[in-house]
Amino acid sequence: MDTIIVKVNDVKKDYNYIEQAGNIIKAGGLVGFPTETVYGLGADALNEEAAAKIYAAKGRPSDNPLIAHISNISMLDSLVTEIPPKAKVLMDKFWPGPMTLIFNKSEVVPKGTTGGLDTVAVRMPDNEIARGLIEAAGTPIAAPSGNLSGKPSPTIAEHMIDDMDGRIDMIIDGGMVGMGLESTIVDMTCEPPMILRPGFITKEMLDEVIGEVEYDKAIFAKPDENLKPKAPGMKYRHYAPSGDFSMYDGDEKKVVSAIVEAATSKLKEGKSVGVITTYQHYDYFKEIEQLGAQVITIGDESRLETIANNLYKVLRDFDKKGTEFIYGETFREDDLGKAIMNRLTKAAGYNIISV
Ligand code: AMP
Ligand code: MG
């Protein structure tokens, strides 16, 4: 299949492309498009055959449900059996935005979209291209992240093209996404509501508007603890670079020397080595950079949103370079740090070394 690739700078000026993409969705096709979190791979959420194409294009396991994206609240009414009062409060506060809510699904949502579940995940994105596309398609758009299953989520169109060129009908290049991490998922079918995936909207922000919210304990458990996450997608190895990625945790000085030591020994074996660091710590790794390590600065430690923004791009950059061994430091787990460490821990296959 030839994938149509278009650049949209301005939704109004480039409306012909949005309309074209909307028609593809209406006809049961697949479109890659930007949202404020990551790039999504969209199809008509109410068309089971179209949703099946998403699974095929991504190589996604069929029990891993999709998120339905809506552009206005009236679209939600048809998808769910009821909207709990706390969900209304959250929607008022955080939609449009990086928050996905789980509801009991209505008859119109096919199980092909929900991975066989009786619940449906819904989000109203805060990105003009995404919302324009949903409006143009006239239907909720089922869209998981636009990467091949297991790979880091796309944060620029180039990543989508790398993974999906030739596999889908169209890709809309809307530049770099604003946030770079997938939405926070909150299950509203239980009491108290439960966070199934941490993201930009933190537990503290949710607690503040609806009282206590709890975490699905499986999110932070290791696979060998055998806890089953409520969001089926959270059980899969995810976000992983091709190289062997380890993270070091502990006292700053000890972490730095452990990384330098591990990296130096791999360089001596003739391996290609990458180090993920921050603006604050870059100087510590200048020496091994001179020995040939690829040292990449992921962001500013004091502004975790910069780290979220660059995370997947850094992992993909190492893939492009074919880096065999990647070393990184852990981050503090307050606020956004929880979401960042959740993704990094999975990317590293739980390979975190305490020093
Ligand atoms: P992605 O954004 O590509 O990571 O995919 C959507 C995520 O939402 C996956 O982790 C799914 O497991 C999760 N999800 C979607 N629908 C549901 C649902 N009905 N119940 C629980 N989790 C869901
Ligand atoms: Mg994904």
Helical proportion?
Answer: 25-40%
Tally of alpha and pi helices: 11
Rg for CA atoms: 20 Å
Global outline = globular
Reported for the largest beta sheet, the result is: 11 strands, mixed
Mean pLDDT: 96
Question: What is the distance, rounded to the nearest whole angstrom, between the alpha carbons of the first and last residues?
Answer: 50 Å
> Could you give the order of strands across the largest sheet?
1-8-2-3-7-4-6-5-9-10-11
How many strands in all? 16
Low-pLDDT windows of residues: none
Q: What percentage of the residues does DSSP assign to strands (E)?
A: 15-25%
Give the ligands present: adenosine monophosphate, magnesium ion
Overview of the structural elements:
This protein is α/β, with parallel strands linked by helices and 355 residues long. The protein has eleven helices and 16 strands. It has helices at 15-26, 48-58, 73-79, 85-94, 128-137, 157-164, 203-210, 252-268, 286-290, 304-321, 337-347; strands spanning 4-7, 31-33, 40-44, 67-69, 99-104, 119-123, 141-142, 170-173, 184-187, 194-197, 214-215, 244-249, 273-278, 294-299, 325-329, 352-354. It has an eleven-stranded mixed β-sheet with strand order 1-8-2-3-7-4-6-5-9-10-11, sandwiched between helices. A hairpin with a 6-residue loop joins strand 9 (184-187) and strand 10. Helix 1 packs across helix 5 (128-137) and helix 10 packs parallel to helix 11 (337-347). It is globular and about 60 Å long. The termini are far apart. The model has no long low-confidence stretch (mean pLDDT 96). Residues 64-65, 67, 102, 114, 117, 119-121, 144-145, 182, 185, 196-197, 230-234 line the site of adenosine monophosphate.
